[in-house]
Design a protein that fits this description.
alpha/beta; 10 strands; Rossmann fold; globular; two-stranded antiparallel ribbon
Length: about 290
Amino acid sequence: MFGKVISNMMVKPGQSPLFDSPDAYGLDYEDVAFQTEDGVTLRGWLIHGGSDKVIVQTHFGVQCNRGGWTPKGHGPITPWKQDIKFLRQAEYLMEQGYSVLMYDMRGHGESDLGPIPWVSWGPEEAKDVIGAVDFVSARFPEASIGLLSICMGSASTTYAYGRDNGLAERKNVKAMIAVQPLLYTCFMKALGMPNFMVKAGEKVSEQRLGFDMGQPNFVKEAHNVTVPTLVVQNKNDPWTQLGMVEDYYQALTVEKDMRMLDIEKSRFAAYDYVGSHPEELMGWFDRYM
């Protein structure tokens, strides 16, 4: 019983109904759909700000989608009290002359499930990042592409660099911002959950996914990243281990920087910060695109 409940918390898809729209911001956009290499249809918004620079935004996992995160439907106790609207940073980027692809990863928002119908925390979702980059490349063949990858999006993007015919082969990708990369094992330790409950959840998740969630490690893939990368982390985040974030940063072999935020004691504070202070972070793209 414990195992199924915990596994559902961590890998069950469909926990993130779409709650926001570019219409609310008066943005010029279109609804788009594209397929990944394994035939999964992903859906999103292509926000038009220019044809020579495009940002691919990849959201965080399980309870998130292209629009962001909402506390609605999660009961009275939530990690953050307000909607986190990713369209805020998209609006800022559009005003700076960027187009932005915001899409739902498999099993999230309005996108389809994958052949493995569970959230894998990055290994499967890496195919989605590649599919998103290829979609943008086909629409804008001459454009430079930047990657705004948040939490599980950072893990997925890093795995995508380590795949055969992965992002390392896409020379039009010029820069990445990795917001709060997080290993599953570090997250579980930070939650302080009793070990027997963790093991029970991992057993069920392994049956569902076909692999032990404690084994894939995107930190070990970081050396495959080929573009300048800015790592953003709230130093007061209680749901991670800062040593893991430092390990990820040190493993990057490209031009890099780390922005350590000193903000509210919540992991979600940094997710909100990206949209509330985009001018403090998005200049990273201006430097390389």
